[in-house]
Design brief:
The structure is a single chain. This protein is an alpha/beta fold. It has nine helices and 18 strands. The chain starts with a strand and ends with a strand. About 5% of the residues have low confidence.
Amino acid sequence: MFADRAKIIVKSGKGGNGHVSFRREKYVPDGGPDGGDGGKGGDIVFEVDDGLNTLTDYRHRRKFAAQPGEDGGKRNCHGKNGADLILKVPAGTVIKDAASDKVIADMSGDQRRRVILKGGRGGLGNQHYATATMQAPKYAQPGGEAVELEVKLELKVIADVGLVGFPNVGKSTLLSRVTNAQPKIANYHFTTLQPNLGVVDLDGASGFVIADIPGLIEGASTGVGLGLEFLRHIERTKVMIHVVDAAGTEGRDPIADIHAINRELEAYDAALLNKPQVIAANKTDAIYGDENDIIRALSEEFEKNDIKVFPISAVSGKGVKELLYHVNDLLSRCSKEPMVYDSEFDPTLRLFEEEPYTITRADDAAFVVEGPKIDKMLGYTNIDSEKGFLFFQKFLKEQGILSRLEEMGIKDGDTVRMYGNEFDYYK
């Protein structure tokens, strides 16, 4: 099956922890701190690969994680940075936040590479905390946390022209006639289950990219049949060619079909109806004479709205050249700028949206303070030493925890509990 959607979980690398150590050599009895810094965690990077045209690589694997940074070492050794994880996607892939459905990045146009999640920073070793009054600090900074995010990947075909129409009207045959594309062609519905692209070359005119997009049925805008796949890919096209069966071999009403397609376009996104349209009345090779009632009715219905009708035969090539030159003329009046979706969501802001700590009251009226940063800091700080305890107090103040406790009504002598440690509060 053609893969144009996927949902995956990406996780950046955690930063390495800073190291606590002291210089100990035979002739250096009072060596100072020499704990090295931790390495930075790897980033999550999306990159366009022109050799890809589906999202198949992400259909059977759900989780992707960058490498964590290494911890710092003794003798000022810096931990190794974690390797970035580069995820290759086809051009036209839109990356969205799965929770909000907001666009993070559109890998189209000049956007060829995008860092989606940054790795955690490396923690500083204890050498950075030495001062004139505290020459032997016994604590270091923990590495920055990894960030995890669920994202949706949607591939939206980048083509100048889209072939639209109900199943089995000859869209794939027309594509194979005007380009070097080799789509699957057969006399049954839904032969095309994926967009097929080809390049049209015209003498004396610039070429353009044309896409044969999966067939449409009533209710497409609500997800019936292949409708959502159709509508997703038509968004980026600049001109639409309605392909209809002018010979009536399927017993369908081409006028009703075109109106049905336009209704689905409007229901999905009314702006799609602003795109230039042209009608290719196909299968004229199966018509006796030069014209029939269907072609005449199409012209009377749509040409008054400046939508031209071209009788063609995708099999013999009759009328195709005239159609293509008209499409090229319509394209020349369109904006040359590619359609690129603006970013609506920055994953890095999620770090600031999440509450870094919580404060609750226990049954014995103690204030219970919890949070990942507090847990990490307690693990790397020697609070039994006076200097270490002062350092931890400074951390609580910088994080706004002391201010929050005061807002909650803490008084001198009240108990504060943090991961098995109890303190008496005094301002």
